[in-house]
Automatic annotation (TrEMBL):
UniProt protein name: Regulatory protein RecX
Signal peptide: none
RecX third three-helical domain ranges (all copies): 159-199, 212-259
Family, similarity comment: Belongs to the RecX family.
Protein location: Cytoplasm
Known function: Modulates RecA activity.
Domain RecX second three-helical: 108-149
Domain of life of the native organism: Bacteria
Gene Ontology terms: biological process: regulation of DNA repair
């Protein structure tokens, strides 16, 4: 049995309209649905058409909410799907909303990934592996990620890796020479650069061992350990200090020399 539109009333919310059928409120629609279905006072609607209109309105409502979500920045399909789940929209409409967004070129995970890669290599110290992980978490496919990462050329990686390497060298300048190199390499890999590029960066940094400074660092670290273990028996103290200094990357010969000098001073 058909029903007749007896009144169309604009809501306080812009772009929404209440539809009255046979003198009673029936449902609300967006302006786009109102226009698409040519809804007007006096028009008769079948039950099937009413159902179609309500489905279209749900899709339109979800679509418009996602447009607002996209107005601030690009989003991946996964991020949009998660946003839809947080809204008061039935999951049965998700595919239609996603399809409409794709048709209007508002979802493109490859373009998103390319933009993300460019932003990361221009504004951060992150290497490809960290970028890859972040994009995977955002739901971008592995193929799209690899296509986007082509933009992060070996030359750009080398430049950014060297810049980061210099910062790390300054941060760990009070470490033993061995530990300095180890921590720089670990830091570069943790930031997402490959082991190969990390090794090349260490070569480019051209770090040199300053034997006098190295022994000064050893003495400083050794004296702290000595004060900690001064109450122990001589051999046990020497073993603990030797092990601790070796873990810090100092050479065994230098450690033994330090301990010998320290024992002699202590006995005197």
């Amino acid at each position: 049995m058909d029903k007749k539109i007896t009144m169309i009333q604009a809501q306080k919310k812009p772009g929404r309209y209440n539809i009255y059928l046979d003198g009673e409120y029936a449902f609300a629609v967006s302006e786009s649905v109102l226009i698409n279905y040519r809804l007007a006072k006096g028009k008769k609607l079948s039950l099937e058409l009413i159902a179609d209109i309500q489905i279209s309105d749900n899709i339109s409502k979800g679509y418009n909410k996602i447009l607002d979500f996209l107005s601030h920045q690009m989003r991946t399909q996964k991020e949009i799907e998660l946003k839809l789940k947080s809204l008061d929209i039935a999951e049965g409409f998700f595919d239609d909303i996603i399809t409409k967004l794709k048709e209007n070129h508002l979802i493109d995970d490859l373009e998103y990934a390319k933009s993300f890669v460019r932003t990361m290599y221009n504004t951060s110290d992150k290497g490809p592996q960290v970028i890859r992980t972040k994009l995977l978490q955002k739901g971008v496919s592995s193929n799209d990620i690899e296509d986007a990462l082509i933009l992060y050329t070996p030359e750009l990686q080398a430049k950014n890796c060297l810049k980061l390497g210099k910062k790390l060298a300054q941060r760990y300048h009070n470490e033993s020479f061995k530990n300095l190199q180890t921590k720089i390499k670990q830091g570069l890999i943790t930031k997402g650069f490959s082991s190969e590029i990390a090794n090349l960066t260490l070569e480019d940094l051209a770090l040199e061992l300053d034997q006098e400074n190295e022994f000064d660092l050893l003495v400083s670290a050794g004296d702290k350990l000595w004060n900690r273990y001064v109450g122990l028996e001589s051999k046990k103290r020497a073993l603990k200090i030797q092990q601790a200094l070796y873990r810090k990357g100092f050479a065994l010969d230098d450690i033994r020399q330090y301990l010998e000098d320290k024992e002699n001073d202590f006995e005197d």
